[in-house]
Amino acid sequence: MARVPTELRRQQLIEAAMTVIAREGVDGATTRKIADEAQAPLATLHYCFHNKENLLWAVFEHLAKLVRDDLARTSAPDPAATVLVTHLVRETVQWAIENPAPNRAQIEIWSWARRNDPEFASRIYDMFIQTWKECLRQVLAPLPEEHLETLTRVFVAVIDGLCMQLITHGDDLAVLREAETAREMLMAYVGSP
After folding, report:
1. Which of 52, 104, 112, 119 could staple 26 via S-S, CB 3.0–4.6 A?
2. Which contacts of 78-81 are long-range, i.e. CB under 8 A and separated by 24 or more positions?
3. Residue 150 domain-assigned?
4. Contact status, residue 174 vs residue 165, Cβ threshold 8 Å
5. Do the Cβ atoms of 18 and 102 come closer than 8 Å?
6. Model confidence band, residue 178 (pLDDT cutoffs 50, 70, 90)
């Protein structure tokens, strides 16, 4: 069997973890099932991550990186801050529709962490708040820090709610309609801080 470079194997294990967690929840996603999904030896998973919590953290880091990368590629039809911020609602919801496993895995991990390790849950949620805050700061530079903090938390709450509705009901069109309403609400807020 050919040796797989460590970074590639880490990425395969992260992808496998998202798939297994989306399918079976965090408790059902044993390290053995994740290693099997990645077609990797169990020892390799433990070598790369040492334990399941480190793997869960890596999944969240990966998801945060996806957010940053997607935002870097996002081009709104109008460069105005209000349009760009609200455009992100559509883009993020569309991403969740097109990527159901990472979307479900994110919520499963956070819910599991909230029940089992509230400090870990806070750390991973804070990582997402900071990721979005930095992204929004780039397009809302003149926005006072207090308003930026509020907007970021509302934005994340809206996205989380829409993603949860998507998982619960699976109705893409309803979630897209609700995203449009959320977009209009955020545009009203950004337009008048």
Report:
1. 112
2. 81/139, 81/140, 81/143, 81/190
3. yes
4. yes
5. yes
6. very high
Structural domain contains residue 28: no
Written in H, E and C, the secondary structure of 132-148 is HHHHHHHHCCCCCHHHH
Mean pLDDT, residues 153-175 = 93
Q: Quick one: pLDDT at residue 193? A: 44
List CB contacts of 185: < 8 A, sequence separation 6 or more: 158
Q: Are 133 and 152 in contact (CB under 8 A)?
A: yes
Residues in the chain: 193
CATH of the domain at 70: 1.10.357.10
Tell me, yes or no, whether 134 lies in a domain.
Answer: yes
pLDDT confidence of residue 29:
95
Q: Domain containing 99: what range?
A: 56-191
